[in-house]
């Protein structure tokens, strides 16, 4: 096997909390529209809007806010009151200003690997928001490279690990999304490490490649240094 030289980390819900704020905002959204549509049906319509809009707005809070506004208009046949739209916008602004909460073991894992491997932060979403979160996290100086991308696919990982290292075959990608962090990295030729998070976005679900030797699952990031020692 090729020696590991480069380790990539996902950001949202791998290094710091993220999905919980989307869930809380979605509950607030349901409250704003409780007089107009059933909360269960509203959640389905919002997810449908998010799926449709990924190609238009990409990933992140701003696209989520636009999808909520679209869903509110559709659910009320364009009769949604202005104060509801304002409430949605205010909820999105609060998400963009929310302080970063580092996940347990994340900072320690990054510190333990710094200097031993080339460390990359590879995240998707809105550029300004991801830069803000990285700056607030205090982890920015720990990474040898930061890549904020529109999506995560095998060619994305192949290009990033070739640019920053010896290619994906000498790389490991750790993250909480099977669909975005693990499967495309394995398809690019590297190791994919799944670190589950208690809350996961429905559009990031995918089945694990159980028989794949380059697939690994850890209970938390604190176990990543030990895995890398075993991989050699």
Q: Count the DSSP helices.
A: 9
Mean pLDDT, to the nearest integer, reads 94
Please report the distance between the alpha carbons of the first and last residues. Answer: 9 Å
Strand order of the largest sheet: 3-2-1-4-5-6
User: What best-fitting shape do the alpha-carbon axes yield?
Assistant: elongated
Give the helix proportion (percent range).
Answer: 40-55%
In terms of per-residue confidence, which ranges show pLDDT below 50 for 5 or more consecutive residues?
none
Main sheet summary: 6 strands, parallel
Number of strands: 6
What share of residues are in beta strands? 5-15%
Structural class: alpha/beta
Rg over CA atoms, rounded to whole Å, is 19 Å
Order of SSEs? EHHHHHEHEHEHEEH
């Amino acid at each position: 096997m090729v020696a590991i030289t480069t380790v990539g980390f996902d950001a949202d819900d791998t290094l710091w909390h993220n999905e919980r704020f989307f869930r809380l905002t979605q509950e607030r959204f349901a409250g704003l529209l409780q007089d107009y549509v059933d909360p269960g049906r509203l959640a389905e319509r919002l997810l449908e809007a998010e799926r449709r809009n990924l190609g238009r707005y990409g990933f992140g809070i701003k696209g989520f806010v636009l999808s909520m506004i679209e869903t509110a208009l559709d659910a009320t046949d364009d009769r949604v009151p202005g104060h509801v739209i304002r409430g949605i916008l205010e909820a999105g602004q609060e998400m963009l200003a929310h302080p970063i909460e580092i996940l347990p073991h994340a900072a320690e894992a990054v510190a333990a690997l710094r200097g031993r491997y080339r460390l990359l932060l590879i995240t998707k979403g809105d550029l300004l928001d991801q830069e803000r979160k990285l700056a607030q996290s205090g982890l920015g100086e720990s990474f040898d490279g930061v890549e904020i991308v529109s999506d995560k696919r095998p060619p994305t990982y192949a290009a990033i690990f070739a640019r920053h290292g010896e290619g994906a075959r000498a790389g490991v990608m750790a993250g909480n999304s099977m669909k975005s962090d693990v499967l495309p990295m394995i398809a690019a030729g590297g190791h994919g490490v799944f670190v589950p998070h208690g809350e996961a976005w429905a559009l990031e679900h995918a089945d694990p490649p159980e028989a794949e030797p380059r697939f690994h699952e850890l209970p938390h990031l604190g176990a990543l240094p030990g895995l890398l020692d075993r991989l050699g």
